[in-house]
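Open question from group meeting: does this chain pack into something compact, or does most of it stay loose? Before anyone orders reagents, we agreed to write out a predicted structure and look at it together. Recording both the input and the output here so the notebook holds the full record.
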Amino acid sequence: MINTVTHEGVTYIRKGKAMSHAVVTLSTKTNYSGAPRPLVEWASSLELAQKNHSAILARADKVARTGSLGGVFSAEYYSPEHFKYSVIVEATHG
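Structure tokens returned:
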């Protein structure tokens, strides 16, 4: 199964188990090549996508309030000066 989502003209593809949605998050924090670094979290249901989306927004909120973030997540990625948006996109299958 090929899962596909397109957001703002960019297409993201995942092979494997069928996924119904993806949460696309973009930060202006760049990768090693200088390009913005998207984060795509695939979900098997709308409910799971909503849960993932809420967690992403909670990370951004925590960094905005405290300036730090525990665990493996980059506080800089979610900082107010870099974090742009996070959206839920419905997947198509091919």
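Observations to bring back to the group:
The beta strands are 2-7, 10-15, 21-30, 36-43, 83-90, 92-93.
The chain has one domain: 2-93.
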